[in-house]
Structures are given as structure tokens and as C-alpha cells.
Amino acid sequence: MRKRTLKRSLTGFWWFTLAFLYLPLAVVALFSFNASNSAARFTGFSWRWYERLLGNEEILSAFANSMGLAIVSSTVALVVGCLIGYGMYRHRHRKLGWLIVLIYLPIVLPDIVFGISEMAFFVQVHRLTGFLQPGLGTMIIAHVTFQIPFVALIVYSRFVGLDPTLFEAAKDLYATPIKRVIHFMLPTIKPALISAFFLSFTLSVDDFVISFFTAGPESATLPIYIWGAIKKGISPEINAIATLMIAAVAIVAAISLIFSRRRQA
Amino acid sequence: MSYAGVTPSARSRAMVRESRHLLFTVAPGAIWIVIFLVLPSAYLMGVAFMTNGPYGLPEMPLSLGSFERLAGFGFLGWSPGNLYTLLRSLWQTLVSTGLVVLVAYPIAYYISTCRERWRPIMLLLVVVPSWTNQVIRTFGWMNLLAPGTPLSSLAEGLGLIAPNMGLYPSNFAVTLGLVYNFLPFMVLPLYAAFEKLDTAQVEAAQDLYASPVRAFWHAVFPQTLPGLLAGVVLVAIPAFGMYVIPELLGGGKGMMLGNLVANQFSGGANWPLGAAGAILMLIATFIGLYAMRRIGKRLGGGEEVVI
């Protein structure tokens, strides 16, 4: 009897928590369809804020910046991180404590310290040498820096999960190291490479703090644009662009759910 | 790998080859992180010990002035502003971490009691909001707590806030935002702990006529402690350095350490002071990491829970 009341109240609490988690997102989505520009009252359905988005050049260029930044930084991080991941695996019997510390550093450093130290560094280097002017270039550098560890760890754990005798077999089968890489190593770690790329991509698109501090005047990404718009005063257009970003996340979540289902089956 | 039966010179040649291999694979990334993260952080730490120049940029000579400023000592004598910000950061971290535990504990337990095929979906439902951009999530709360919204009107009707003030900007809004932001960080490690809970211990307690409270306290709680502590570290460390949430939901009186630091690099322009604040944040981070390692060693499984 008591057990049942416990279960029932837990179920209630679960739904309450879900409401708490989704309410802010739902409000953003709801008001993106608001006919008036009131942020407090819903007066009717309209697409006008979405239509405005298409004509807003700042948003379109912020979107382009976000995508370009994510693609370039994830690609660089994939190459560099993959090399480290393999090196860590191949030489795992050596004492590589310093390397582990180095790789965990970008993960554990607080965002704000990360962003500000890079900003201070870039500003001083630019003052002294003229290189590294704040802009998309410095943002790419900063993003690659926080993406490398994730790629390295994913690739490393994929290698660890493999049967070590596979490497011996590959050595016997393929003569040159380059052939071994192309015909054995890359195909076997392909799933890890794909998930590492997508994780880096998501981290890059999602990042605000580090981008904000390393950005230049012309290199605003979507989160930076939204931040600026909020600071200037809330406009319903932000709701529309934010809703599109929430929808993108929902789609990714649905895809990952389908994949995990398939793996279970 | 064994080199038995190989001549010494061939062996040393193989070792050279191995070392070169290590160099080619690891060096690019390691050098990248050293140049673009270790050097900048070292520079930032150096800045904390320099003097604030006329344009907010660091200058020689070395001094501890920035730490004095952080503790409130300025040209006009002592003022409590910065100390209040520090205390507020600590207070917000404590309160929000506590609230996150109170919400996450029953949720993690509930998920672990549900049918196995539902559990991944339930976990996904908890995690998905945190995949959306932090700025957007916080913006959602701004919409919910602004003056004139149902929640604000309700709080007004109950006499909790002055008329037409709205629930944001306020310290309450910051706490709420922090709890919202970090809930998944606590649910995941706690769920992992509940998932591998040894129910035999609970049954033994019940067989010995332990009251439900005692059974929970002696048979369940200790088993979930590693997950709980891991969650506390995962929540408390980033909460202490939070920038976005207090900036948007807190207003001038809700500032936390992260905002104090960031302001010194933009508006306020006092790099050494900002760098001193950053060092404080780093110290907090390393205390947290150290605590986590200790927990992992003492209780076992702590680290594995985190990853």
C-alpha cells in the first residue's frame, strides 16, 4: 500500500520535472508563432517572424559563420585528435601521464577561463606581431583546442576495444604502413571517426562562451547573434531562430534514439 | 612485444622507430594544446601578478594589487562589492547544487525502477534540453519569468514580489537557471549508481525488520554515494564559474565570479583583476578534481561513473 503511494508520487514528480525541463523551450517555440510582438501574451498564430528571418542578413551570415566554423574546426580536430588517439593506444604501455593531463586540460578548464586566456593571448600576440587578429581564424583555433580531446578519447577507446591480434594480422597481410592505414585502420575505426566528427560539430555549434571571447567584430555565430539581440532588447525574431535551433536538436535526439533502438534489437 | 634474440643495435633501432612514431602521432595535438591553451593560461596567470595600466592592460612591475582589489581594497579604501560577488557565487553554487540533488535523486531512482525498455528514452528526455544552446535555454526562462507572465503574476498574487517587478532579474532567477542547467549532470551519475544497486542488501535490511527509512539510509544511500559525489563535483565546479545565466537572469545584483572576471576584460577593463578572479576559479576547479579522484579511489567506481 505504502509502496504504491510512493510509486505514484514519484510518477507525479517525474512528470512535473519533465514539465520544468521543457517549459522554457516550449515557451520560446510558442511565442515564435505569436502574431503580435508581445513577449507576455499570445494573440494569434502567424509565420511573420520566420519570414523576417529569411530577410535578415545578419542572421544568415551568423548561420554561415556557425556552419563554416563547425565544419573547418571539426575537420582539423578530427585529423589531429585521431593521430593522438592512435599514438596513445600504440604507446599505452609507456608512461604518458603528461599527455593525459594535457588532453584533459581543455575538458576540465572552466569555459570562462578558457575563453579569456585565449582572448588575452590572441590580443597580445596580435599587438606584438600582427598575426592572430580576432575573427573566424582565432575562433577556429579555440574550437579545435576544445575538440581535440574528445576526438582523441573516442578514437583511443575504439582502438582499445579492438582485438590486439588484428594488428598483427594486418601487419602480415599488408606490406606497407600506408596500405595498412588505408585498408585496415581507417575502415575499422570509421564508426569512431564519424561519431567523433559529429560530437565535435555539435560542441562547436553549441559553444557560446569560448566563441564569444575569441570572436572578432564580423565573426558572430548564431549563439553570439542571439546573445547580442537579447542584450539589445527581446525581439520575437529571436524566438523564431531559437525555435529552429531547438528543432534541430530534437531531430538529432530522434535520430540517436532510433540508432540506439536498432543497436538493442 | 618482445625483442628476444634480436641484436642490440636492431633493438635500439626499433626503439628509435617507436619513439619517432610516438612523436609523429602525438606531437601535433600536444603542441597545439600547449601553444593555444597552456601558454595562454600561463600568460593569464602571469597577468594576475602584474599592475593594471592606464588602458586596463597589464604592465610591469609585478604586484599583488589585483588580489587586494579582489578582496575589496581599492583606491577609495575597502568596499565589499567584490567580496559580495565571491560570496554570492559560493552561495549560489551551494544552493543550486543542493536543489539539484533534491530533484535528481528521486528522478534517477524512478528511472531505475521503470521498465528496462523505457529507461533509455527517459534518460534521453532528461538530457535533450541540455543539448540546446545555453543562451536559448536561459532566454526561455527570461520569457517565463518576465513581468506580466503567468508565473510572475502568480508570485505577485502570493505577495512574494513587488507589483510589476517580474521574477527576473533576481538571484532567485539565477538559482532556478542553474538548477535547470545542471539537472542532467546529476541525474546521469546517480542513475548509473541506482542501476547497479545491489538489491540483496536492501532485502537483507528488510528481513531484519529495518524501517524503510533505516533500510534506505544503511542499505541504499551508501551505494549511491559515489554517483552522488561525482554529480556534486560535475555540478558545483561549472556552477561556480557560470557566466551566461547570471549575466542574463541576474542583473546587476546577481553577478557571480564569472561575470566579475569577464567584465574586467571588456567594460571594466582591468585585466590583472580579472586574471586574479580566473586563478580563484582554477583553484576551485582543481580542488574539485582532486576531491573527485579521492572519491574514486576511496569508494571505487567514482571515476568510471563520471565517464
How would you describe what is shown here?
- The complex is a heterodimer of chains A (265) and B (307).
- Chain A has twelve helices and no strands.
- With 265 residues, chain A is an all-alpha fold.
- Chain A has one domain (57-264): MetI-like (MetI-like fold), CATH 1.10.3720.
- In chain A, helix 3 runs parallel beside helix 6 (136-160), helix 3 packs across helix 9 and helix 6 runs antiparallel to helix 9.
- Chain A has helices spanning 2-31, 48-55, 57-90, 97-108, 111-129, 136-160, 165-173, 177-188, 190-206, 209-214, 222-232, 236-264.
- Chain B has helices at 8-48, 65-70, 81-113, 119-131, 134-145, 150-157, 171-195, 199-207, 212-240, 244-250, 257-265, 271-299, 302-306; strands spanning 51-52, 58-59, 73-74, 77-78.
- Chain B is built from 13 helices and four strands.
- Chain B is an all-alpha fold and 307 residues long.
- At the A-B interface, helix 1, helix 3, helix 4, helix 5 and helix 6 of A face helix 1, helix 3, helix 4, helix 5 and helix 9 of B.
Please tell me the overall pLDDT of chain B.
Answer: 84
**Overall mean pLDDT score of chain A?**
88
Please report the two chains with the greatest interface, counting residues with C-beta closer than 8 angstroms to the partner's C-beta: A-B, 80 and 74 residues
Strand neighbour order, sheet with most strands of chain B: 1-2
> Which ranges of chain B are low-confidence, i.e. pLDDT below 50, for 5 or more consecutive residues?
301-307
CATH class term of chain A: Mainly Alpha
Q: How many individual helices of chain A?
A: 12
Query: For this structure, what is the CATH homologous superfamily of chain A?
Result: MetI-like
Largest sheet geometry of chain A = none
Give the terminus-to-terminus CA distance of chain B.
Answer: 30 Å
Question: How far apart are the first and last residues' alpha carbons of chain A, in Å?
Answer: 36 Å
- Envelope shape of chain A: globular
Number of helices of chain B: 13
Major beta sheet of chain B, specifics? 2 strands, antiparallel
Per the CATH scheme, the topology name of chain A is MetI-like fold
The succession of helices and strands of chain B, N to C, reads: HEEHEEHHHHHHHHHHH
